[in-house]
Each structure stands twice: as C-alpha cells, then as structure tokens.
Amino acid sequence: VGGVTKVTDTFTSLAAANAFFSNNAVDAGTFSSTAGLLVTVKLDLTTSTAGFGFGQQFILGATDGSPPPIVAAPNSVLIQQGQIKAITGVSVSEAVALSAGQTVTVNLKDTNGILSQTAGMGTVTGSGTTNLTIIGTVAQVNADLATLKVKDSILPTDTIKITSSDSRSGDSVTTIKVNVNAPPTITVGGAQILSQGVTAAIPGVSIADPEAVFANETLTVTLADTVGLLSATGTGITGSGTTSLTLTGSLAQVNADLTTLADTEGSPGSDTITVNANDGRGGMATQETIGLTISGTPAVTAPANVTLPQGKATAIGGVSLSESNTTAGETFTTTLTDTAGLLSATGAGVSGSGTTSLTITGSLSQVNADLATLTASEGAPGMDVITLGATDSNGGTAAPATVSVTTDGPVIAAPIKKTIGLGQTTAFKGIKLSEIGGPTNLTVTLQDSKGLLSATGAGVSGSGTTTLTVTGTLFQVNNALATLTDTSSKAGKDNIKVNAIDSLGDNATAKTIAVTTNGLPVITAPATATVKQGVATAIGGVKLSESGSTKGETFTVTLTDTNGLLSAAGKGITGNGTTTLTITGSLQLVNGDLSHLKDNEPGLGGDTITLNATDSLGNAAAPASIAVTSSAAAWVIPPPHVFVAAMAGFGADLASPAHVWAETWRPSPPMLSGPRVQLA
Does 641 score more than 70 pLDDT? Predict the structure, then answer.
C-alpha cells in the first residue's frame, strides 16, 4: 500500500490456495486513505505444470468504507466488420447498496468501435461514439447496459475498457476483447453466353477473405442455378451435376474448386446463377448473381437428294442455317465437303470455293446469304455425297446433314486386267454400260494398242481392227459388248481404253483394261536319257515355261513312252506307272511334279518319250521328245556252290530267295544264257 508491503502469504498446494481465495479477505493492516493512493496485489506462481495461471477478480476495499462498484462482462466478443453487434452480459453491481441520491457511473471506451445504447434510463453521454458514459442508479445503468451495442470496422481486434465508480468510493476497471471478423467477398466474371446442351466453363468466380488464413476459417460457397446443371471438380464438393452446388473448405480449396465451375443449360433463353458464401464465423458475403444467355443449337437444313448434270456448276437450293435465341456478336461456321464434286459460293467469309471443301464464316444472316449462292459441279456420272456441318461461337455444334447427289450420264463397268493367249480369239466378259438419268442413245469406243477387237450386233463398226465403236440404245450397246473378243499376235503388255458418251453430251469416266498376252507354253527337256533296265530311273531337266502372267492359268503336260513305265510324284497326276503320264495344274505345280519324273524300261535298247503341253488360254507348246537308252544291270557269277544252291531253287520257284552266307540272291530276270544269278 503506497509502496509498502503490508502482508505476504504463501501457499504450497493448489488446494490451500483455492481454499484461501474463496471469498477471503487479505488484511493489509491500517493505513491512511489519501488521494491517488496505489494499492497493488502481486501474485507469483512457481509450478511445473504447463498452462497454470491466474483467472481471479479481486475487490479492493477498506473496512472503514464501501467497495467500488464491480462490472461483470464477457472476456471477449466476436463481431462482424461494419455491423452493429449487441454485447450481452455486461452489468454493474454494488457490494453495499447505494443510499438515496447516490449514483453509479460506468464509462466504456473503445479504441475504434462505435458504442451505443438505446434504453436511455440513466444519464447517457457519448452514445454513437468511442466513449460512452452512463450515470444513474444500478438499475438504470444496468437497463442501459442491457442494450449495449458496438460497431467496428477495423480488423482484426479491438478493446473496450469499462471503468465503474460511484459517489462513495474509488473505481474498478475491466476490459472486453473485441474480435472483428471481416465477411468474405464474392467476385464474379459478369454475364455469360452459353450454347444449349454444351457444358461451358463459368470463369471469374472467386472468394476473398482477409482473415481466412489468420482465423483458420472454413468457408462454404453455395451456387444455385434456376434451370442449368452446375458442376465442379475437387474436394469438398456436393451437388455436382444439379442445380445447387456447394463447396466447403479453406479459402485456397474453394477457390481452386471454383476455377473448374461449369454449367450445362438444356434450353435456349436466359438463366441466373446466384452465389453466396459464409466464413463459418458469422461472416456472410453479399450475394452475387451471374446472368446467363443461352443460344440454341445451330441446325442445318438441306435437301436429301439432288440430281445434277455432268460437268456443269449447278445451284443447290434449300440449304440454310438456323438457330433460336441468337446472341449479339455470335458468329457461325458452316463446312461443306463433297467426295468428288467441286463446291462454290460467293460472298464474304467464303473460303475453298471451287474445291471439294467449302467453308463459310460470319453472322447467321451472312452465312445464309452465302449459302443461297451454293453450286456444285460433278465431273463424272454416278452417286456422290455432300456433307454439311456447322458450329457457333458459343460452342454449339449442329447435327451433320447430307445431300445425296446423282449425276446424269453413262457409267462404264470393266475389268481392271485381262490375260489372253497369243493368237487366240478371247472373249472379253465384264464390259458393260449403264446410264444414270433418262434413257438416251450411247456411243462406246474401244481402242486396243496391239490387239484386234471384234463384236457383233447392230451399231458395231471397226470389228476386226484396233478401234471398235458401238452405237445404239443401252440395250443394243450392252448386247454388242457381250460378244466382244480380242486377238493379239504379239506377246506382252497391251491396253484397251473404253470411252462412252450419250446423246446429251455427257461423258463416262474412261476405263483402261490392262491386257497381258501370254506367249506359247515352252517345253524344256534333255534330248537323251539313259536308264537302268528294270529300274525306275529319274529323268531330270524336264520343265514347262510361258511368258506373261500365269496367275490363275492352268497347264496340262502329257508324256508318252513307247515301252517304259512313266511315274512322277505330286498332285494333279494321272497314269502313274503306265506308258502315258498326264500332269495338270498351275505352272508351279506342274514343274514340281516334273522334277520327280522317272522311267522304268523293261527291256534293253532304245525308246522314246514324247512330251506335249497346253494351257487354259488355248495355246499348245511345240512337242518335245527324249531318246531313252536302256542299259542292262550288272550281273554277278556266284561261286559254284552258290550256283548249285540257286539252281536247286530255280526249278522250284524263281521268286523264292536262296540264302547263302547271309546274302540274298534272286534269280531275276530269267536266265538268258548260262546259269547266272543277279545280286540284289
């Protein structure tokens, strides 16, 4: 008291300290009360337990007077930045009741916040400022304190200092910590233009909160769409793919999720997305809205079928582009592709005119004006397809449309290649004419660089020459073409060119037939051959060849022997082991079989094998022959005892073997002069 220690107490246990400080008085002794006297209570704590401290309130008084009034108040309050917040739990009390005419004074000072009350029961000054004073009876002051409010815009904390006093004694002081919370703010990217049925990103939506990290806030962002389906990806997301989407998490997390925000609108028109956010500590963001304009899906209109003349740029009408609820500044791109024909259009935004791929870009009216000038030129008769597609700048894509194009004129069907035999008059099948469009007279011209073409029927001219012409109706022309033949006297490559024109001047696409004239088959064989009498002996060097293309061609080789028995191994063989051997098959098969050719001559002396060959094209090879000489097998004269043994068996059975010294003897052929046995 006044700098002099009056009393000291020490407690060595928590229980003793708690027992003493339960409404016990500390006797500071007798001292004189003077103005400005400072009384200090000092508490020291030594403990090994972390987190221990003091949380008590002390009333200082004197035995010769009344203690000051005491204010009860919360330790802290949370308020929202810039919003008026009622502070509850603030009251004043007197340990000794005031006498008549005595008053209590409570002064509240806030560093930044504006303090106010609305009861007005006591004498109030400074309401609506940072310094509020209330004077009156305890009841009057408490009535005013019950309506206490504060409004603070300064982050993040503030302090309200409350001093209470009465007209009898000193004063007491308490404080309230004010935590000022800033609400989150929402930023949106403005109105958006979308295309019906297209999932489009909604950019520019984000949340800001200056205290989100400091206060470890968990934010909740709610987005609601009247019709469209909202979606986002990330963590803390619920309702993706519905009209109500909620994002929950830290500030960084919800902002990351918002970068993936997308919307899918099912119909053209307008829509709205509302965005709300709170920080979990009472802070509510001001709602933001995003206006949506939804354009319809572009649609292509085109005729299903058109018929065009050959080689003439002809207008194609009825092609247009449409879209409901078009938006300001919207552009369109229409693409037209033709398999063979050349497409053209005039106007701004046209590219690729005169090619098979035409593109038109511009506003809807501009694109339709250009499409009104669309033409196509087909170079050859037949069927073609024009494919149309369209997109808009809002992301919409039209369903493709197709136009089937029929071009009038003759069409030639012909084989790609043909193989004929040298000097053979060969029928040419598969050349036929058809006419797209109305019936007309036709003229077909066939030109052969080497061969002589022939046909019969009405309207045929040039038969038997290298240029053949057929004129008449479609029926007459095709009947004549069915009799077409070609005869070539030179082996090698040749071409037949086929052209056609109708009486309207439409030309068919020319066809070229690659003709191969094969040479005659050629037999290669040795002039002579020597074989062992009675033994099937191989005859090598026999081969068949033919110039040209032998693919698909078949050959027949016939070998005739006067006395010998002919044989071969493989497929396509008849007459094996007889004097007439026939081999039929491809050139490769025939030569494979001939490589195994054998002759078994029963007698000694000379013989002849004659060879002939034909191909499936009607040609025959020049015959060939092989002079065959048959030589006798070696004879062995056995020792006398062997001879006797052999002769003993000879009379019984010439085919029965005689076993002598584990060797086999067979008396074959029949003895011609003297007793001999051939060693087998």
Answer: no
- Specify the residue for token string 């598969």: 430
Q: CA angle, 626 as apex, 518 and 670 as ends, to 5°?
A: 145
Mean pLDDT, range 317-328, rounded to an integer: 95
Q: Which residue has the higher pLDDT, 330 or 59?
A: 330
Average pLDDT in the chain: 88
Classify residue 623 by its DSSP letter: P
Give the pLDDT confidence score for residue 659 in this predicted structure. 37
- Determine how β-strand 624-631 pairs with β-strand 528-532: parallel
Phi, psi dihedrals of residue 199, rounded to the nearest 5° = -75, 115
In angstroms, the CA 151 to CA 145 distance is: 15
Q: Which residues of 96-107 are buried (b: 16+ CB within 10 A; e: fewer)?
A: eebeeeebbbbb
Q: For residue 65, is pLDDT > 70?
A: no
Cβ-contact 508, 442 below 8 angstroms: no
Phi first, then psi: what are they for 642, rounded to 5°? -70, -45
User: Would you call 588 exposed, middle or buried from its count of C-beta atoms within 10 A (0-12, 13-18, 19+)?
Assistant: exposed
The pLDDT value recorded for residue 11 is: 76
Contact 261, 269 (CB under 8 A): no
> pLDDT per residue over 478-505, tens digit each?
999 999 999 999 999 999 999 999 888 8
141's CB contacts (< 8 A; 6+ apart) are 92, 104, 106, 121, 122, 134, 135
114 φψ region: left (φ > 0), alpha (ψ -120 to 50), beta (else): beta
Instruction: Give the CB-side neighbour count of residue 669, counting CA atoms within 13 A.
Output: 11
Cα–Cα distance, 262 to 201 (Å, whole number): 4
Instruction: Give me the pLDDT at residue 482, please.
Output: 95
